[in-house]
From TrEMBL:
Gene3D superfamilies: Phosphoglycerate mutase-like (3.40.50.1240)
Keywords, in A-Z order: Hydrolase
Name by which UniProt lists this protein: Histidine phosphatase family protein
UniProt cross-references to PANTHER family, sorted A to Z: PHOSPHOGLYCERATE MUTASE-RELATED, SERINE_THREONINE-PROTEIN PHOSPHATASE PGAM5, MITOCHONDRIAL
Residue spans crossing the bilayer: none
Top-level taxon of origin: Bacteria
Taxonomic classification: Bacteria, Pseudomonadati, Pseudomonadota, Betaproteobacteria, Burkholderiales
Pfam families the record matches: His_Phos_1
InterPro entries, sorted: His_Pase_superF_clade-1, His_PPase_superfam, Mito_Ser/Thr_phosphatase
């Protein structure tokens, strides 16, 4: 039996012109996770990442903190959905920059609604695959892990959407429950599956063992 670790990227640049870039805190979160794993002697037999910049930067931080040098397998099916495209399907007018709590909440209310409609097949966000194809991209990565890494430790670095989709697939969750999980995933959080050649089983979800303690309270972020 193997163990699959799924890590959401560190804090990105929410509200900036280019979200796909870790903040300084996001880099520290990733490096701290690597340090934590190194202190416990955890090593990986394989590393898989999405193709986004924040995925590569998160893996670079983990690798630096842990002293690892794996060349990851890049799996585009682990890339995040385009949240702006999702929101545009139900709110075609541009949103102002979410720089207040109310605007932040409005952004995520619209995102939740847009995701539900995309998952139901009632909208087709510009430049995005169908939800069925999105799910296939994620489950293809899970199938690859089961087929090629039995008995090994495998790390996947991805985003909240693909990780919650993996959870929904493994646990047989409804679309609404999958969206709820998506909205709760914290930056650099760790989810673990055990796996055999036939199936995955959930061990933990959305944990931050590397940020445990008062010194790291301000490091816990969601976007």
């Amino acid at each position: 039996m193997g163990t699959l670790y799924l890590v959401r990227h560190g804090q990105a640049s929410f509200g900036a012109d280019d979200y796909d870039q870790l903040s300084d805190l996001g880099r520290r979160q990733a490096e701290r996770l690597g340090q934590y794993w190194a202190s416990r002697g955890l090593r990986f037999d394989a590393v898989i990442t999405g193709s986004l910049r924040r995925h590569a930067q998160t893996w670079a931080g983990i690798a630096s903190g842990a002293g690892m040098d794996h060349a990851p397998l890049v799996w585009p099916g682990l890339d995040e959905y385009d949240s702006h495209a999702v929101i545009e399907t139900i709110h075609p007018h541009p949103l102002v920059k979410p720089d207040t709590p109310e605007l932040y909440r409005q952004h995520f209310r619209l995102l939740r609604d847009g995701l539900a409609q995309w998952m139901a097949g009632t909208v087709s966000p510009r430049g995005m695959p169908s939800y069925t194809d999105f799910v296939h991209g994620v489950t293809g990565a899970l199938d690859h892990v089961r087929s090629h890494h039995h008995g090994q430790n495998v790390l996947i670095v991805s985003s909240g959407g693909p990780i919650s989709t993996a959870m929904g697939h493994v646990l047989g969750l409804s679309p609404d429950a999958t969206i709820d999980l998506n909205m709760r995933i914290r930056n650099s959080a760790v989810t673990q599956f055990q796996f055999t050649p036939k199936r995955h089983a959930l061990l933990t979800y959305n944990t931050l063992p590397h940020l445990d303690g008062p010194d790291y309270d301000s490091w816990i972020t969601y976007a």
